[in-house]
Design a protein that fits this description.
single chain, mainly alpha, 9 helices, 0% strand, elongated
């Protein structure tokens, strides 16, 4: 019996979890042959392509997925992360801001935006993002670590 698109996606996840990225991509492609607009397979494939530093391919996949579901926060954050990994921090901020227009309390987007702003040299705005994330979730370890790094850097400059 042939696998359906969800089974191919799940097989791809198993390969991904074993760091078998090329095999994972093949499975996501099989899922997408059956169901071309299957958001989960598009998202998973985009994430593998990002890890392989195939950034243009990842951007294309995430853009296709976003054209199907424009308010999918996970897709929007993942696309921002591709740009972040490419060190195109300004573009990353644009995508994190898109998430924040949909959900202003998304701590993942706030923390990622803060890191991107800090990398652009805007430490104060980055710090504001981390502090906002910590107001929403005081246990957000990424926001706390990044905030503390910026604070220590600023203190060290004085």
């Amino acid at each position: 019996m042939d696998k359906n698109h969800e089974e191919w996606n799940n097989t791809g996840i198993a390969f991904f979890e074993n760091n078998q990225y090329q095999e994972a991509i093949k499975c996501y492609d099989k899922a997408l042959e059956i169901e071309p607009n299957f958001i989960q397979a598009l998202n998973n494939k985009g994430n593998v392509l990002r890890l392989l530093k195939r950034y243009t391919d990842a951007i294309n996949i995430f853009n296709k997925a976003i054209s199907i579901d424009k308010t999918n926060i996970e897709l929007l954050i993942n696309l921002g992360t591709v740009y972040y990994d490419m060190e195109d921090y300004s573009s990353a901020v644009v995508w994190y801001n898109t998430v924040l227009t949909i959900n202003p309390e998304n701590t993942n987007a706030l923390t990622n935006k803060g890191a991107a702003l800090a990398n652009l040299g805007d430490l104060e705005s980055g710090m504001k993002c981390f502090n906002e994330a910590l107001k929403i979730n005081p246990l957000d370890i990424n926001a706390r670590i990044n905030r503390d790094k910026i604070r220590d850097f600023i203190v060290g400059r004085k």
